[in-house]
Design brief:
The complex is a heterodimer of chains A (167) and B (119). Chain A is mainly alpha-helical and 167 residues long. Chain A is 77% helix and 0% strand. In chain A, α5 runs antiparallel to α6. The two termini of chain A are 18 Å apart. By secondary structure, chain B is α+β, with helices and mostly antiparallel strands. Chain B contains two helices and seven strands, in the order αβββββαββ. Chain B has helices at 3-26, 81-84; strands spanning 33-39, 42-48, 53-57, 61-66, 69-75, 94-97, 102-108. Chain B has a four-stranded antiparallel beta sheet. A three-stranded antiparallel beta sheet of chain B has the order 3-4-5. The interface between A and B is medium-sized, with 34 and 34 residues.
């Protein structure tokens, strides 16, 4: 599939939306009882692109989103974590979409869980202590919940925009 | 939502429960638990939970022991996850500052591999 003008425009718009959602997420106070808790609003756009565009488009959106959000609001450290979570969850979702019978909501939940598991595993490597496994169970369940809500939103959004020319 | 989705939920919850169950039952007796601080993967110090005090860890973090629970009071890191973390007091609980590679954990006093106890 080649990079037509409309594909470039659509990917650009979706990337902008992902960055915007990432910004909105920084404004929402997080649950401090669970370290690393995030709503994963930006994941909304990535899962949408996975269904409405191509896996490659979703990859572009994801990588650019993490870099831009990281440079504006975070630091290199945040980019390392964001990128690990984003790439692992996107990889897992793209694979599962092809080989499993999961619905959109299931795919989104798998993405949420993978994102969190990948970040916990990375923090175990960075800190050099398996003690951080302590956070794995709660973050796995949290990933299910956030993935579920993202999945529901995508279902509703796609009902309304699918098939229509949005760009 | 279809059958596969529910299988996914069941598997994730089961794995999470297994890990949680393992950590819960592997947890040592709460009595005589200590605060163990690890920095850069190495033991920084062990502290008695019954003595209220403030501990400065390197130039980057400061934690405080008060009424048997521990919280991170200050950190120079960007995300401040460790500072916002609720206080910990039970065995097995941890507060981690990932950017500065510092771990505060509550552990049983029985570990024999530690030479020095700071009081």
């Amino acid at each position: 599939m080649q990079w037509s003008g409309s594909r470039i425009a659509r990917t650009g718009v979706l990337t902008a939306v992902a960055i915007l959602l990432g910004y909105i997420e920084t404004l929402i106070p997080v649950l401090t009882a669970i370290p690393g808790f995030k709503l994963g609003l930006a994941n909304l756009v990535v899962v949408y692109a996975l269904y409405e565009c191509t896996t490659l488009d979703a990859l572009f959106i994801s990588v650019i989103r993490v870099l831009v959000i990281g440079f504006i609001f975070g630091n290199l450290f945040g980019i390392l974590f964001g990128m690990t979570g984003a790439l692992m969850s996107l990889g897992m979702m793209a694979l599962a979409k092809r080989v499993s019978g999961l619905s959109q909501i299931g795919i989104s939940m798998l993405g949420g869980v993978t994102h969190n598991v990948a970040q916990v595993l990375l923090s175990i490597v960075v800190v050099g202590s398996v003690k951080l496994v302590y956070y794995l169970p709660i973050l796995m369940v949290v990933g299910l919940f956030t993935g579920f809500f993202v999945g529901i939103l995508i279902l509703e959004i796609r009902k309304r925009v699918s098939g229509r020319k949005i760009v | 939502m279809n059958k596969h989705d529910f299988i996914l939920i069941a598997v994730v919850v089961a794995v999470a429960a297994l890990i949680w169950g393992y950590l819960f039952f592997a947890r040592e007796d709460d009595a005589d638990s200590m605060l163990v601080i690890t920095a850069d993967g190495e033991m920084y110090g062990q502290y008695d939970l019954s003595v209220d005090r403030e501990i400065t860890i390197g130039d980057t973090n400061r934690c405080v022991i008060k009424d048997g629970s521990v919280s991170m009071k200050w950190s120079d890191c960007a995300n401040q996850v460790c500072v916002e973390h609720m206080a910990i007091s039970q065995g097995g609980e941890t507060i981690v500052c990932v950017p500065n590679r510092i771990i505060l954990s509550i552990e049983s006093d029985k570990g024999g591999d530690v030479d020095a106890v700071v009081r």
